[in-house]
What we know:
Elements: H1 3-34, H2 38-42, H3 56-62, H4 65-96, H5 104-116, H6 121-130, H7 138-141, H8 148-160, H9 163-171, H10 176-184, H11 189-205, H12 208-213, H13 222-231, H14 253-273
Amino acid sequence: MTRGYRIFQGFNAVILAVVVVATLYPFVNIIAQSFSDERYILSGQVNLIPKGFNLTTYQIVGSDPMFWINYRNTVVYTVVATLIAMVLTTCYAYVLSKRHLKGRTFLIWIAVFTMFFNGGLIPNYVLVTSLGLKNSIWAIALPNAISVFNLLVMKAFFESLPDELEEAASIDGLNTYGILWRIVLPLSKAVIATMVLFYAVSFWNSWFSAFLYMNETELFPVTVYLRNLIAGATGAEGAGAAVADVTQAAANIKSVTIVLTVLPILAIYPFVQRYFVSGVMLGAVKG
Length: 287
């Protein structure tokens, strides 16, 4: 190990440490604010440690039955929408990865076209309404079922798989669906896990579609509930007595909502992160 390399390692470690601190500080600060008394937050005394330990806002939100109903809705919406999105995106990407497919360029162009042009808010609303999707999970899941960015990422990954694997499977008697299910998907755990995380986070954090297409409070996801709580608009829409105390926790209500929204994703991420390292194909084909 040369002196220059040791200097580089030290410099690299310092840079990475600064990045880690800059990344973690805002989140730790948000957690500290969520447990702090509002007078300390307003005076700017809360940094990394809570001051004036306070659970008022957590009690306000947690004691409201509507919060748990909306939280359950979010879990259901996220799971169903992510499942639909993954099935459609995977099938579409696998088709587009076949260079010999007739009309492949046209299918790619259709997908890319939607990245730059769309019908607009009013036509989309009219379409969803005319199809009878309002006040249902399908108003959230179907219009956002395929992300073109995710589609192109999966397409590029499928194209990187060796053709010899599929040719060998075809010789052994597998049809197209068998090759996809038994050969391609097991070798695509990295990209599938990444896409699942992307879609799940997107649907979990989404609130505008539900805000637009759902009129019943019992059908709201938790993001809409928390949005209404921050805006002070839930008094007549299901929050009940909870809103009466919102003003007492106005200083840390945003911090609490961020923590409650991010917590499930943080719990799931460690189980998905290990699949991010792409290397599943190393050594799969030799000679």
